[in-house]
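// run 5 | inverse folding | seed 20
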């Protein structure tokens, strides 16, 4: 991974083709929420399948927790859709078939000359594409478990959500005055 992709840095806002054939920017998918970014080897990798099966089982929690998730691999669109369907994923999968992201992030898996995949990484992002944590998943045990992700996301939410504790002094008073800027989605309303 490029040496500047570290906690506190802004992650590059790549634009890639989604499994639906639509071009999407990572920031567009993230919106104002934290995001789990999975950089995967692809459909051929049993480790990726296992990780994605675990993420699919965890997805109902991700979905209700104002958190986004996206997977990027070097698969073609057909392979990408087969991979997504085979693990039961309900989130966006993006194709880096031209390996732009792989090259810019310096994560070519040089040990696999057949598939030319990315070294798998899972990156947990704060709102604004800010890197919170980077997991190197070349070996399966380097990949985060759902429990690791839950703990990371708890810390992010404590840090970035002014309404993490609704009993915090001033929050209720602001709400009752009609100032909703400190409550999700953090848009001031009268």
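// decoded
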């Amino acid at each position: 991974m490029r040496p500047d992709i570290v906690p506190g840095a802004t992650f590059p806002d790549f634009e890639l083709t989604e499994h639906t054939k639509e071009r999407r920017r990572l920031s567009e998918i993230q919106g104002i929420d934290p995001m789990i970014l999975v950089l995967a080897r692809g459909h051929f990798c049993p480790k990726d399948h296992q990780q994605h099966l675990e993420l699919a089982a965890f997805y109902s929690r991700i979905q209700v927790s104002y958190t986004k998730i996206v997977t990027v691999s070097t698969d073609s669109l057909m392979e990408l859709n087969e991979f997504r369907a085979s693990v039961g994923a309900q989130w966006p999968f993006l194709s880096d078939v031209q390996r732009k992201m792989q090259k810019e992030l310096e994560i070519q898996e040089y040990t696999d000359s057949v598939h030319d995949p990315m070294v798998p990484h899972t990156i947990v992002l704060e709102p604004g594409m800010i890197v919170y944590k980077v997991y190197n998943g070349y070996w399966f045990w380097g990949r985060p478990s759902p429990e690791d992700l839950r703990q990371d996301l708890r810390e992010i939410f404590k840090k970035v959500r002014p309404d993490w504790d609704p009993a915090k002094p001033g929050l209720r008073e602001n709400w009752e005055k009609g100032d909703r800027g400190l409550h999700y989605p953090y848009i001031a309303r009268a």
